[in-house]
Amino acid sequence: MSSKIQIPEDGFKGMKQNLAADLTAGFMVFLLALPLSLGIAKASGFPNPIFGVVTAIVGGIIVSFLAGSRLTIKGPAAGLIVIVSGSVEAFGGGENGWHLALGCIVVAAIIQVMFGLLKIGSLADFFPGAAIHGMLAAIGLIIIIKQIPFLLGANPALTKHASETDPTKMVSYETLPLAGQIPKFIAGANAHVAIIGLICLAIMFFFMFVKNPIIKKIPGPLVVLIFAIPMGMFFMLGTDEVVGKFALVKVGHITEILSKQFINVDFSGISSHTGVFIQYVVLYALIGSLESLLTVKAIDGLDPYHRKSNANKDLTALGIGNAVSGIIGGLPMISEVVRSSANVGFGAKTRWANLFHGVFLLVAVIVAVPVIEMIPQAALAALLIFAGYRLASPKEFKHMLHVGTDQFIIFIVTIFMTLATDLLIGVGSGILLELLLNMFSGAKLGNFFKSRSTVEEKGDNQVIVRVTGDALFSNYLGLKKVIYALPKAKNVVIDLSACKVVDHTTLHALHGFQHDYQLEGGTAVLSDLRDHKAKGKAGTSTKVLTRV
Fold first, then answer.
1. Does any domain span residue 343?
2. Which among 216, 220, 219, 215 has a CA at the least distance from the CA of 204?
3. 424-466 pLDDT, tens digit each
4. What pTM was computed for the model?
């Protein structure tokens, strides 16, 4: 009797075969996605949180048919809040800023489609791992800092008594100065809002640490809503004179909103704010694509059937979804890692789980608006702060230090530069620093962007790939073309012994190749680097040749 795993069918045959599993997973992910989508849209400066749900609906119902990945969930992401809110503010804020920011989203979406058609799905492999981790950690810290006022019911404008100012209007602070205002937020907290917010945050942390497998299956955001809505009613937040204007979610009925103006995109920012427009198109296209590709790769590793996604097809589908979302007023979407990993955990088998989650969201915004408008803002802030914590958790700092002092320095510098300036400068600083550290370790400038390798076949079954010069993140794409073109089911040896510098990003990628190649019936090993000195304690720490 064969022990081979039965891989689920795709298409309508797959839906019929796995209907119960995908329907269940889609419903559970919907329970996660609804409050998160509302919170992300609110934190992004969009005029109505309902547009976050619109994004997830498009990602589920439209993109699921086109995507190159089977188990990822498409929707708005906490990791893009910084970019989206920044673009809205840069264009003047309010509804006008939103309309102009949508223009950036749509143009960036077209670029994403081109990325996919030109087969640039390897984009994520070019960026050094420490800079990517630093960028995500910085985004997490920004989310945490900017959501604290909402968690506590204290607006950044509250330097005077709340009744003397409009609590719906936020004062625009940069991240680091805003962090300095935290003591004022604590002093100006509304007790009822803070109680709800802090307990909701505690609930999310409880679910992170719980070990019981049955309890872990319960969506934490669902428990947050079950607690927060009755508490909001108990404290009568909607009628509180001080916090009533911003205590509860305000959405309105989706059919009324879209019937007034279905096309919301405005491209006039191309001429009126050319520099800002180009900056945010680059950020949307680059960071959105990068985060999505990283998620696709991560979810492929969780797929119990070991299926490999088509990254280029997924980028094209993502671009189409973002174009549709941006035209009607929605946020940019990515393959979102938390919802995608939850989708796998809930037992999803095919892409239909993503579609079902979109259908459930559509039904919710049609029939459940009165319930949605009972959600306290503090509950959404708690969910976003928890999402920020996951991006910038102490484990991330500990892991980067374990990988090596060099990678930790890149990680910290990327975080600081992102907090002090913006994402492009932050990531650029991390890339530049990685190149400089590789050069100081002995890497030659001529090897920075050129991979040098030869392929030698020995007998019928063994293949040796000899890499010379340096194996760096900046030249890995060349090496990747060579190793992923090797014949299947061979015994592959990747000989790095002659490389002066083998950096962390390359070693991490090569370990991924080993895993992929072995799943396809072959073996792949890296040569012994006994003559190299590691810069950290991890197996993927940067290694520098010590012998002459």
1. yes
2. 220
3. 899 999 999 999 999 999 999 999 999 999 999 987 899 999 9
4. 0.88
